[in-house]
Amino acid sequence: QKEVEQNSGPLSVPEGAIASLNCTYSDRGSQSFFWYRQYSGKSPELIMSIYSNGDKEDGRFTAQLNKASQYVSLLIRDSQPSDSATYLCAVNMRGPGGGNKLTFGTGTQLKVEL
Amino acid sequence: NAGVMQNPRHLVRRRGQEARLRCSPMKGHSHVYWYRQLPEEGLKFMVYLQKENIIDESGMPKERFSAEFPKEGPSILRIQQVVRGDSAAYFCASSRGLLMQPYEQYFGPGTRLTVT
């Protein structure tokens, strides 16, 4: 079982629709969860962080966390063509030194179609 | 620009040469992380450093790779005797101290290493 799993996609949604991206993780002790957006050939850009169960909203983005189910999701409302990118789910798994290393899923490619 | 800085952005090395990648953390950040992204693969953690200390190097290959974050100057990821399999994008990220939430890591633009 992979430590962080995402569907690779591509996930295609029409412009203006809601895009729903999902992620599961294996380490039940994980405490911090992040969503990054990565355009082709570019670096990951942090778009959301979530630390406690429930929903967290920021503009068109909503992150949802369910620690009991080891599941985290990202909703993008009113999807725009500029949202077309790969979305990476990242989980903070404490390393041997108590460090703050992130374990990434392989990403879900989102395509927003006109 | 107060963001994470990396240089060079592109680096071409012949097999057997050394590659040095540099990273300056975001202003106010004291923790540096290196990640590698191989073609068509996900981001993989390599090493986590604070000034003059390696905190976690569990993702570093055991040979040819080393990292440092000196008291003065940028963090450096060093790859000796590069091989074609080292061709990848190397990203540096930085964060504030662990005692201060959030533990968010911000990424630099990356160094694209090509080994010929």
Instruction: Name the overall outline of chain B.
Output: globular
The SS-based structural class of chain A is: mainly beta
Alpha-beta content class of chain B: mainly beta
Helix-strand sequence of chain B: EEEEEEEEEEE
Terminal CA distance of chain B reads 33 Å
What is the molecular shape of chain A? Answer: globular
Order of helices and strands of chain A: EEEEEEEEEEE
* Total strands of chain A: 11
Q: Per DSSP, what share of the residues of chain B sits in E-state strands of 2 or more residues?
A: over 45%
- Count of β-strands of chain B: 11
Mean pLDDT of chain B: 93
Average pLDDT of chain A works out at 93
Characteristic key phrases:
heterodimer, A: mainly beta, 6-stranded mixed sheet, 5-stranded antiparallel sheet, 11 strands, 55% strand, B: 7-stranded mixed sheet, 4-stranded antiparallel sheet, globular
Task: Characterise the protein shown here.
Chain A has no helices and eleven strands. Chain A is mainly β. In chain A, the strands form two sheets. In chain A, strands 2, 4, 5, 9, 10 and 11 form a six-stranded mixed β-sheet that branches. In chain A, a hairpin with a 5-residue loop joins strand 9 (85-94) and strand 10 (100-104). The mean pLDDT of chain A is 93. Chain B is mainly beta and 116 residues long. Chain B contains no helices and eleven strands. Chain B has strands at 5-7, 10-13, 19-24, 31-37, 43-50, 53-56, 65-68, 75-79, 88-95, 106-107, 111-115. In chain B, strands 2, 4, 5, 6, 9, 10 and 11 form a seven-stranded mixed β-sheet that branches. A four-stranded antiparallel β-sheet of chain B has the order 1-3-8-7, with no helix packed on it. In chain B, strand 4 (31-37) and strand 5 form a beta hairpin. Chain B is globular, with a radius of gyration of 14 Å. The A-B interface holds A 32, 34, 36, 42-46, 49, 51, 88, 90, 92, 95-107 and B 31, 33, 35, 41-45, 48, 55-56, 58-59, 91, 93, 95, 98, 101-110.
